[in-house]
Input
Amino acid sequence: MDELLEWRKEFPILENTVYMISHSLGAMPRRVYDRLREYADVWASRGIRAWEEGWWEMPVTTGNLLARIIGARPGEVVMHQNVSVGVALVLSCFDFTGRRNKIVYTDMEFPSVMYVCEAFSGYGARSEVVASEDGLSVPMEKILAAIDEETQVVVISHVFFKSAAIVDPKPIVERAHEVGAKVLLDAYQSVGTVPIDVKELDVDFLVGGSVKWLCGGPGAGYLYVRPDLWSQLEPKVTGWMAHARPFAFEIGPIEYARDIRRFLHGSPHIPALYAAQSGYEIIAEVGVDKIRQKSIRQTSRLIELAEERGYRVNTPRDPHARGGTVAIDVPHAQAVAAELNRRDVLVDYRPGAGIRLAPHFYTKDEELELAIREIEAILETKAYERHLAAG
Ligand SMILES: Cc1ncc(COP(=O)(O)O)c(C=O)c1O
Output
Protein backbone atom coordinates (compact mmCIF):
# COMPACT_ATOMS: atom_id res chain seq x y z
CA MET A 1 0.00 0.00 0.00
CA ASP A 2 1.28 3.41 -0.99
CA GLU A 3 -0.09 5.76 1.67
CA LEU A 4 1.01 8.82 -0.34
CA LEU A 5 -1.68 8.05 -2.90
CA GLU A 6 -4.18 9.34 -0.32
CA TRP A 7 -3.07 12.80 -1.46
CA ARG A 8 -4.39 12.28 -4.97
CA LYS A 9 -7.82 13.59 -4.09
CA GLU A 10 -6.20 16.90 -3.19
CA PHE A 11 -5.11 17.42 -6.83
CA PRO A 12 -8.01 17.79 -9.32
CA ILE A 13 -5.93 17.30 -12.48
CA LEU A 14 -4.98 13.75 -11.44
CA GLU A 15 -8.58 12.65 -12.07
CA ASN A 16 -8.19 12.86 -15.83
CA THR A 17 -4.50 13.04 -16.73
CA VAL A 18 -1.32 11.05 -16.21
CA TYR A 19 0.61 13.85 -14.58
CA MET A 20 4.31 13.33 -15.29
CA ILE A 21 5.35 16.96 -15.41
CA SER A 22 6.00 18.02 -11.83
CA HIS A 23 9.56 19.05 -12.77
CA SER A 24 7.94 21.79 -14.86
CA LEU A 25 4.55 22.62 -13.29
CA GLY A 26 3.46 20.72 -10.19
CA ALA A 27 -0.22 19.81 -9.99
CA MET A 28 -2.49 22.43 -8.38
CA PRO A 29 -3.71 21.58 -4.87
CA ARG A 30 -7.48 21.80 -4.58
CA ARG A 31 -7.18 24.14 -1.61
CA VAL A 32 -5.73 26.85 -3.91
CA TYR A 33 -9.32 27.58 -4.93
CA ASP A 34 -10.06 28.52 -1.30
CA ARG A 35 -6.87 30.50 -0.83
CA LEU A 36 -7.41 32.61 -3.94
CA ARG A 37 -11.00 33.21 -2.93
CA GLU A 38 -9.73 34.25 0.51
CA TYR A 39 -7.38 36.70 -1.19
CA ALA A 40 -10.27 38.22 -3.14
CA ASP A 41 -12.49 38.30 -0.03
CA VAL A 42 -9.82 40.05 2.02
CA TRP A 43 -9.28 42.61 -0.69
CA ALA A 44 -13.02 43.10 -1.15
CA SER A 45 -13.90 43.35 2.53
CA ARG A 46 -10.81 44.68 4.30
CA GLY A 47 -9.54 46.98 1.53
CA ILE A 48 -6.48 49.01 2.48
CA ARG A 49 -6.45 47.46 5.97
CA ALA A 50 -5.32 44.18 4.37
CA TRP A 51 -1.75 45.46 4.20
CA GLU A 52 -1.37 45.78 7.95
CA GLU A 53 -3.48 42.69 8.58
CA GLY A 54 -1.04 40.38 6.81
CA TRP A 55 -0.29 41.35 3.24
CA TRP A 56 2.75 43.48 4.03
CA GLU A 57 4.36 40.62 5.96
CA MET A 58 3.55 37.95 3.40
CA PRO A 59 6.95 37.84 1.65
CA VAL A 60 8.41 36.87 5.04
CA THR A 61 5.55 34.79 6.47
CA THR A 62 5.33 32.77 3.24
CA GLY A 63 9.12 32.46 3.31
CA ASN A 64 8.76 30.97 6.81
CA LEU A 65 6.65 28.13 5.42
CA LEU A 66 9.32 27.46 2.82
CA ALA A 67 12.13 27.75 5.37
CA ARG A 68 10.93 24.54 7.08
CA ILE A 69 11.50 22.64 3.84
CA ILE A 70 15.12 23.79 3.36
CA GLY A 71 16.29 23.65 6.97
CA ALA A 72 16.30 27.44 7.44
CA ARG A 73 14.87 29.26 10.46
CA PRO A 74 11.86 31.60 10.39
CA GLY A 75 12.88 35.04 9.18
CA GLU A 76 15.70 33.79 6.93
CA VAL A 77 13.82 33.49 3.63
CA VAL A 78 12.04 36.14 1.54
CA MET A 79 9.75 35.65 -1.40
CA HIS A 80 10.36 37.06 -4.86
CA GLN A 81 8.64 36.61 -8.15
CA ASN A 82 11.13 34.16 -9.62
CA VAL A 83 14.70 32.86 -9.58
CA SER A 84 15.98 35.37 -12.15
CA VAL A 85 15.10 38.27 -9.84
CA GLY A 86 16.65 36.44 -6.87
CA VAL A 87 19.92 35.87 -8.75
CA ALA A 88 20.04 39.48 -9.95
CA LEU A 89 19.40 40.71 -6.43
CA VAL A 90 22.18 38.54 -4.98
CA LEU A 91 24.72 39.49 -7.67
CA SER A 92 23.84 43.15 -7.17
CA CYS A 93 25.27 42.86 -3.64
CA PHE A 94 28.81 42.54 -5.01
CA ASP A 95 31.40 44.88 -6.41
CA PHE A 96 32.87 43.46 -9.60
CA THR A 97 35.23 46.34 -10.35
CA GLY A 98 38.20 44.97 -8.39
CA ARG A 99 40.44 41.93 -8.82
CA ARG A 100 37.81 39.62 -7.33
CA ASN A 101 35.41 39.90 -10.23
CA LYS A 102 34.72 36.36 -11.36
CA ILE A 103 31.37 34.57 -11.47
CA VAL A 104 31.79 30.81 -11.88
CA TYR A 105 28.89 28.81 -13.29
CA THR A 106 28.44 25.71 -15.45
CA ASP A 107 26.98 25.35 -18.92
CA MET A 108 24.25 23.15 -17.37
CA GLU A 109 22.61 26.02 -15.47
CA PHE A 110 19.12 27.13 -16.39
CA PRO A 111 19.60 29.66 -19.22
CA SER A 112 17.79 32.48 -17.43
CA VAL A 113 20.36 32.24 -14.64
CA MET A 114 23.21 32.38 -17.18
CA TYR A 115 21.67 35.43 -18.83
CA VAL A 116 21.61 37.28 -15.52
CA CYS A 117 25.23 36.28 -14.75
CA GLU A 118 26.36 37.43 -18.20
CA ALA A 119 24.48 40.71 -17.84
CA PHE A 120 26.73 41.56 -14.90
CA SER A 121 29.66 41.82 -17.31
CA GLY A 122 28.24 45.31 -17.78
CA TYR A 123 29.31 45.95 -14.15
CA GLY A 124 32.79 44.44 -14.54
CA ALA A 125 32.02 40.79 -13.84
CA ARG A 126 33.92 38.11 -15.73
CA SER A 127 32.34 34.68 -16.17
CA GLU A 128 34.13 31.39 -16.08
CA VAL A 129 31.81 28.79 -17.51
CA VAL A 130 32.67 25.23 -16.57
CA ALA A 131 31.63 22.88 -19.37
CA SER A 132 29.94 19.53 -19.08
CA GLU A 133 31.64 16.73 -20.99
CA ASP A 134 28.67 14.41 -21.35
CA GLY A 135 25.61 16.66 -21.14
CA LEU A 136 24.61 14.91 -17.92
CA SER A 137 26.78 16.45 -15.24
CA VAL A 138 29.95 18.49 -14.75
CA PRO A 139 33.11 16.96 -13.24
CA MET A 140 33.51 18.20 -9.67
CA GLU A 141 37.28 18.66 -10.08
CA LYS A 142 36.66 21.08 -12.95
CA ILE A 143 34.22 23.13 -10.87
CA LEU A 144 36.59 23.24 -7.91
CA ALA A 145 39.54 24.18 -10.14
CA ALA A 146 37.64 27.18 -11.49
CA ILE A 147 37.11 28.64 -7.99
CA ASP A 148 40.03 30.84 -6.98
CA GLU A 149 40.96 34.08 -5.18
CA GLU A 150 39.47 36.09 -8.04
CA THR A 151 36.06 34.41 -7.65
CA GLN A 152 33.32 36.54 -6.17
CA VAL A 153 30.40 34.12 -6.54
CA VAL A 154 29.81 30.54 -7.69
CA VAL A 155 26.34 30.06 -9.14
CA ILE A 156 25.39 26.40 -9.33
CA SER A 157 22.29 24.22 -9.56
CA HIS A 158 21.62 21.60 -6.94
CA VAL A 159 19.96 19.47 -9.63
CA PHE A 160 20.57 20.24 -13.30
CA PHE A 161 17.32 20.99 -15.11
CA LYS A 162 18.11 19.02 -18.26
CA SER A 163 19.58 15.80 -16.93
CA ALA A 164 18.34 15.78 -13.31
CA ALA A 165 21.92 15.05 -12.21
CA ILE A 166 22.50 16.03 -8.58
CA VAL A 167 25.46 18.26 -7.76
CA ASP A 168 26.97 17.86 -4.28
CA PRO A 169 27.17 21.47 -3.09
CA LYS A 170 29.31 20.63 -0.05
CA PRO A 171 32.80 20.55 -1.65
CA ILE A 172 31.88 23.62 -3.72
CA VAL A 173 30.89 25.60 -0.63
CA GLU A 174 34.06 24.46 1.17
CA ARG A 175 36.33 25.43 -1.71
CA ALA A 176 34.56 28.78 -2.20
CA HIS A 177 34.84 29.67 1.47
CA GLU A 178 38.52 28.67 1.52
CA VAL A 179 39.24 31.36 -1.08
CA GLY A 180 36.77 33.96 0.20
CA ALA A 181 34.07 33.42 -2.44
CA LYS A 182 30.33 32.92 -1.96
CA VAL A 183 28.00 30.23 -3.30
CA LEU A 184 24.53 30.85 -4.71
CA LEU A 185 22.67 27.56 -5.01
CA ASP A 186 19.83 27.29 -7.52
CA ALA A 187 17.73 24.65 -5.84
CA TYR A 188 14.68 24.94 -8.10
CA GLN A 189 14.93 21.34 -9.27
CA SER A 190 15.58 19.88 -5.83
CA VAL A 191 13.42 21.64 -3.23
CA GLY A 192 10.34 19.49 -2.70
CA THR A 193 11.81 16.29 -4.10
CA VAL A 194 15.44 16.03 -2.89
CA PRO A 195 16.10 16.82 0.79
CA ILE A 196 18.25 19.87 1.39
CA ASP A 197 19.51 21.59 4.52
CA VAL A 198 21.03 25.03 4.09
CA LYS A 199 22.61 24.95 7.55
CA GLU A 200 24.34 21.64 7.01
CA LEU A 201 25.63 22.83 3.62
CA ASP A 202 26.60 26.24 5.04
CA VAL A 203 25.55 27.69 1.69
CA ASP A 204 25.54 31.50 1.42
CA PHE A 205 22.47 31.97 -0.76
CA LEU A 206 19.73 29.70 -2.03
CA VAL A 207 17.16 30.54 -4.68
CA GLY A 208 14.32 28.50 -6.11
CA GLY A 209 10.72 28.71 -7.14
CA SER A 210 7.36 27.17 -6.50
CA VAL A 211 6.19 26.20 -9.93
CA LYS A 212 7.59 22.67 -9.92
CA TRP A 213 7.95 20.13 -7.11
CA LEU A 214 6.42 22.45 -4.52
CA CYS A 215 3.08 22.60 -6.34
CA GLY A 216 2.91 26.29 -5.50
CA GLY A 217 2.13 27.73 -8.94
CA PRO A 218 3.77 30.59 -10.83
CA GLY A 219 4.97 33.89 -9.42
CA ALA A 220 6.57 32.76 -6.16
CA GLY A 221 10.35 32.42 -5.97
CA TYR A 222 12.31 32.38 -2.71
CA LEU A 223 15.66 33.62 -1.50
CA TYR A 224 17.56 32.42 1.57
CA VAL A 225 20.57 34.44 2.71
CA ARG A 226 22.94 33.21 5.44
CA PRO A 227 22.13 35.45 8.40
CA ASP A 228 25.71 36.34 9.32
CA LEU A 229 26.15 37.88 5.84
CA TRP A 230 23.19 40.25 6.07
CA SER A 231 25.03 43.19 7.57
CA GLN A 232 27.74 43.06 4.86
CA LEU A 233 25.37 42.98 1.89
CA GLU A 234 23.71 45.98 0.27
CA PRO A 235 21.70 44.90 -2.81
CA LYS A 236 21.57 47.45 -5.60
CA VAL A 237 18.38 45.76 -6.80
CA THR A 238 16.26 47.25 -4.04
CA GLY A 239 13.19 49.27 -3.13
CA TRP A 240 11.16 50.66 -0.30
CA MET A 241 10.32 47.30 1.30
CA ALA A 242 14.05 46.86 1.96
CA HIS A 243 14.23 50.13 3.91
CA ALA A 244 14.64 50.08 7.70
CA ARG A 245 11.59 52.38 7.99
CA PRO A 246 9.57 52.05 4.78
CA PHE A 247 6.62 54.05 6.09
CA ALA A 248 8.79 57.03 6.99
CA PHE A 249 9.13 57.61 3.23
CA GLU A 250 12.59 59.09 3.74
CA ILE A 251 14.27 60.74 0.79
CA GLY A 252 17.82 60.06 -0.40
CA PRO A 253 19.76 56.80 -0.27
CA ILE A 254 18.25 53.76 1.36
CA GLU A 255 19.02 52.69 4.90
CA TYR A 256 18.69 48.92 4.67
CA ALA A 257 16.55 46.95 7.09
CA ARG A 258 18.71 44.93 9.46
CA ASP A 259 16.83 41.69 8.91
CA ILE A 260 15.99 39.55 5.87
CA ARG A 261 13.76 42.39 4.60
CA ARG A 262 16.86 44.12 3.25
CA PHE A 263 16.66 41.57 0.41
CA LEU A 264 13.20 42.71 -0.70
CA HIS A 265 12.44 45.46 -3.21
CA GLY A 266 9.04 46.87 -4.20
CA SER A 267 5.41 45.92 -3.48
CA PRO A 268 4.92 42.16 -3.27
CA HIS A 269 3.03 39.72 -5.50
CA ILE A 270 0.29 38.95 -3.01
CA PRO A 271 -2.02 36.63 -5.04
CA ALA A 272 0.88 34.36 -6.01
CA LEU A 273 1.86 34.09 -2.35
CA TYR A 274 -1.64 33.03 -1.32
CA ALA A 275 -1.52 30.30 -3.98
CA ALA A 276 2.00 29.13 -3.16
CA GLN A 277 1.33 28.53 0.54
CA SER A 278 -0.92 25.54 -0.13
CA GLY A 279 1.85 23.68 -1.94
CA TYR A 280 4.40 24.43 0.79
CA GLU A 281 2.03 23.19 3.49
CA ILE A 282 1.38 19.94 1.66
CA ILE A 283 5.04 19.25 0.85
CA ALA A 284 6.02 19.94 4.47
CA GLU A 285 3.25 17.65 5.69
CA VAL A 286 4.10 14.81 3.30
CA GLY A 287 7.81 15.22 4.11
CA VAL A 288 10.60 15.45 1.53
CA ASP A 289 12.32 12.31 2.85
CA LYS A 290 9.23 10.25 2.02
CA ILE A 291 8.87 11.98 -1.35
CA ARG A 292 12.49 11.19 -2.15
CA GLN A 293 12.16 7.49 -1.26
CA LYS A 294 9.20 7.11 -3.56
CA SER A 295 10.83 9.18 -6.29
CA ILE A 296 13.93 6.96 -6.29
CA ARG A 297 11.76 3.88 -6.61
CA GLN A 298 9.59 5.30 -9.41
CA THR A 299 12.35 6.95 -11.44
CA SER A 300 14.32 3.67 -11.26
CA ARG A 301 11.29 1.84 -12.60
CA LEU A 302 10.85 4.36 -15.42
CA ILE A 303 14.48 3.91 -16.46
CA GLU A 304 14.06 0.13 -16.36
CA LEU A 305 10.96 0.34 -18.58
CA ALA A 306 12.70 2.66 -21.04
CA GLU A 307 15.82 0.53 -21.25
CA GLU A 308 13.79 -2.64 -21.81
CA ARG A 309 12.60 -0.96 -25.00
CA GLY A 310 16.04 0.26 -26.01
CA TYR A 311 15.29 3.96 -25.47
CA ARG A 312 18.21 6.21 -24.64
CA VAL A 313 18.13 7.53 -21.06
CA ASN A 314 19.75 10.95 -20.56
CA THR A 315 19.64 10.87 -16.78
CA PRO A 316 22.13 9.33 -14.33
CA ARG A 317 21.46 5.63 -13.64
CA ASP A 318 22.65 5.87 -10.04
CA PRO A 319 19.53 6.90 -8.08
CA HIS A 320 21.63 8.87 -5.60
CA ALA A 321 23.07 10.91 -8.45
CA ARG A 322 19.73 11.97 -9.91
CA GLY A 323 16.79 14.11 -8.85
CA GLY A 324 13.14 13.46 -9.63
CA THR A 325 13.13 13.56 -13.44
CA VAL A 326 13.94 10.98 -16.09
CA ALA A 327 14.85 12.17 -19.61
CA ILE A 328 14.18 9.61 -22.31
CA ASP A 329 15.27 10.17 -25.88
CA VAL A 330 13.48 8.48 -28.75
CA PRO A 331 13.26 9.35 -32.46
CA HIS A 332 11.10 12.46 -33.03
CA ALA A 333 11.00 13.01 -29.27
CA GLN A 334 9.50 16.49 -29.50
CA ALA A 335 6.60 15.30 -31.65
CA VAL A 336 6.14 12.23 -29.44
CA ALA A 337 5.91 14.52 -26.40
CA ALA A 338 3.30 16.64 -28.18
CA GLU A 339 1.24 13.53 -28.91
CA LEU A 340 1.57 12.34 -25.31
CA ASN A 341 0.18 15.67 -24.14
CA ARG A 342 -2.69 15.36 -26.59
CA ARG A 343 -3.45 11.99 -25.01
CA ASP A 344 -3.46 13.49 -21.51
CA VAL A 345 -0.08 12.05 -20.55
CA LEU A 346 1.56 15.30 -19.53
CA VAL A 347 5.32 15.56 -20.14
CA ASP A 348 7.70 18.01 -21.79
CA TYR A 349 10.60 18.00 -24.22
CA ARG A 350 13.98 19.68 -23.95
CA PRO A 351 16.56 19.73 -26.75
CA GLY A 352 19.55 17.59 -25.83
CA ALA A 353 17.57 15.77 -23.15
CA GLY A 354 14.50 14.31 -24.83
CA ILE A 355 11.12 13.65 -23.21
CA ARG A 356 11.24 14.56 -19.54
CA LEU A 357 8.99 12.56 -17.23
CA ALA A 358 8.62 13.20 -13.53
CA PRO A 359 6.55 11.15 -11.14
CA HIS A 360 5.80 12.85 -7.82
CA PHE A 361 4.40 11.67 -4.49
CA TYR A 362 0.92 11.48 -6.04
CA THR A 363 1.89 9.21 -8.95
CA LYS A 364 0.58 5.64 -9.17
CA ASP A 365 2.99 2.90 -10.19
CA GLU A 366 0.71 1.85 -13.02
CA GLU A 367 0.97 5.35 -14.50
CA LEU A 368 4.67 4.74 -15.16
CA GLU A 369 3.85 1.69 -17.26
CA LEU A 370 1.06 3.57 -18.96
CA ALA A 371 3.31 6.48 -19.96
CA ILE A 372 5.96 4.20 -21.42
CA ARG A 373 3.37 2.07 -23.21
CA GLU A 374 1.95 5.24 -24.78
CA ILE A 375 5.41 6.25 -26.03
CA GLU A 376 5.79 2.79 -27.51
CA ALA A 377 2.38 2.93 -29.18
CA ILE A 378 3.01 6.42 -30.59
CA LEU A 379 6.31 5.27 -32.10
CA GLU A 380 4.82 2.07 -33.50
CA THR A 381 1.82 3.75 -35.12
CA LYS A 382 3.81 6.86 -36.12
CA ALA A 383 1.14 8.93 -34.38
CA TYR A 384 3.80 11.61 -33.88
CA GLU A 385 3.62 12.46 -37.59
CA ARG A 386 0.71 14.87 -37.23
CA HIS A 387 2.92 17.01 -34.96
CA LEU A 388 5.85 16.87 -37.40
CA ALA A 389 3.53 18.17 -40.07
CA ALA A 390 2.31 20.94 -37.76
CA GLY A 391 5.97 21.92 -37.17
C1 LIG B 1 17.11 25.04 -12.25
C2 LIG B 1 16.15 26.12 -12.68
N1 LIG B 1 16.41 27.41 -12.37
C3 LIG B 1 15.57 28.40 -12.73
C4 LIG B 1 14.41 28.12 -13.44
C5 LIG B 1 13.45 29.22 -13.80
O1 LIG B 1 13.82 30.49 -13.43
P1 LIG B 1 12.72 31.63 -13.20
O2 LIG B 1 12.10 31.36 -11.86
O3 LIG B 1 13.50 32.89 -13.22
O4 LIG B 1 11.73 31.53 -14.29
C6 LIG B 1 14.13 26.79 -13.79
C7 LIG B 1 12.92 26.39 -14.55
O5 LIG B 1 12.04 27.04 -14.98
C8 LIG B 1 15.01 25.78 -13.40
O6 LIG B 1 14.76 24.50 -13.72
